[in-house]
Amino acid sequence: MTSKRDDRRKAAVEKQIDENLRRVYEQDVTEQIPDRFLALLDQLREQK
Length: 48
Description:
mainly alpha; 81% helix
């Protein structure tokens, strides 16, 4: 059985993980796709 203290600690860790994931996602959204990836996507589309 977990104590209230353990539950609070777990909740705090989960909150921190959520915040960090949001931060990383926001950074990725604002970055442009590198040209080499766009070229690779074009090559893959041509293979269809």
